[in-house]
Amino acid sequence: MDAVIFDCDGVIVDSEPIAWDAWAALIVRHTGGEPDAADGPALVGIDLRASAEYLVDRYRLPSVDKVIDEYQTELLDRYETELEAFDDVVRTVRELAAQGIPLGVASSSERAELDLKLGRFDLVRYFDAVVGGDEVAATKPAPDVYLRTAELMRVPPSACLVIEDSVVGAQSAQAAGMRVVVIARDGVGPSGYPSINDVDAALILEWLG
Q1: Model pLDDT for residues 64-88, shown as the tens digit of each residue
Q2: CA distances from 44 to 51, 94, 101, 159, 167 (A)
Q3: Homologous superfamily, domain 3-14+84-208
Q4: CA angle 84-45-80, nearest 5°?
Q5: Closest CA to 146 of 92, 155, 67
Q6: What pLDDT digit, counting tens, does each position of 147-185 carry?
């Protein structure tokens, strides 16, 4: 049976703007200046440590470990009041699960943060496997997180359809030998990948055949 694997940030939950706001607040505190807004999109799909290393070098911030600790505190505070899930994906996940379609989540986020995001909207119970970036040897665009998710689901990679929102994530899924569709909520998807503006269970079932 075919399976569906979702990225989390930007696909299931609208966390990416919050993540950038947390980074921006940290940069302002340490430098007194506004960060370059173009850095926000540059971090999409990249794991926490790689993001911290990039920003520490770019803005001459304190040590990577110190920055990560400060960022995570800022981020969790913001999640408490700002985090929202995408209604179309929540509805689709519930409909696919009700039809017995194996579902997974493969994310660059650390597992504890991933569980917090999914748990906030009572979504964990719908997924057969959830894998964070800290549970594999290499994060996206390496295929590890998708391969591990498929392994836990006991589904061959070639039988998996992936819903992503970033080029880095799409490259990861493709490298794992999976079919990938990129969700482009602004109507403009990356070239080279099929894209959709929102997620619909009927359309996914049609793709699964």
Answers
A1: 999 999 999 999 999 989 999 999 9
A2: 9, 26, 28, 26, 9
A3: HAD superfamily/HAD-like (3.40.50.1000)
A4: 25
A5: 155
A6: 999 999 999 999 999 999 999 999 999 999 999 999 988
